[in-house]
Amino acid sequence: MYLERLKAARERFPLTQRELAARAGVTRGTIMALEAGTTRARPSTARALAAALGCEYSDLLERVEFPGCLNPRQGSRYDGILDEIEQLVAEVGR
């Protein structure tokens, strides 16, 4: 998972990358790569970083909104997917 908000959370304390790495039990290189977005965090790493920062790991994730996702019939890139799902469910139920 990409921890889009890691740097902002770290700087809020403020902590250096080295200090956060020591608190979370990871290397500074890991922090650098995660903040640069060149690598994804394992769930265990995300939990360790969140614990070191005193937050939930979900607080470190990018906040992405998917308009139309709740109602795909309102005209979005998800048009037709609900119909396909309903058709598949009906076929499986036969």
Q: DSSP helix count?
A: 5
Q: Mind telling me the C-alpha Rg?
A: 19 Å
The CATH architecture of the largest domain can be named as: Orthogonal Bundle
At the first level of CATH, what is the class of the largest domain? Answer: Mainly Alpha
Characterization of this structure:
By secondary structure, this protein is mostly helical. It folds into two domains: 55 residues, 434 Repressor (Amino-terminal Domain) (Orthogonal Bundle), CATH 1.10.260.40; 31 residues. 50% of the residues lie in helices and 0% in strands. It contains five helices and no strands. Helix 2 packs across helix 3 and helix 2 crosses helix 4. The longest helix is centred in the last third of the chain and has 12 residues. About 14% of the residues have low confidence.
